[in-house]
Amino acid sequence: MTNPSSVEILVVGNEILIGDIQDTNTSWLCNLIHERGGVVNRVTVLPDTLEDIAETIQQAVEREVPILFTSGGLGPTADDLTLAAVAQGTGRELVLHEEAKNMVAQQYDYFYEKGIISIPGLNDAREKMAWLPEGAEPLFNAGGTAPGVKLVHGETTIISLPGVPSELRTIVSQSLRDEFEEWFGDGTSTTKVITVYCNDESLMEPVLTKVVNDYPDVYTKSLATTLGEYPAIDIMMTMTSGTPQEQHDIVEAACHDLCSGLTQLGFKLHEKGETAL
Question: What fold, for 190-276?
Answer without folding.
Answer: Alpha-Beta Plaits (3.30.70)
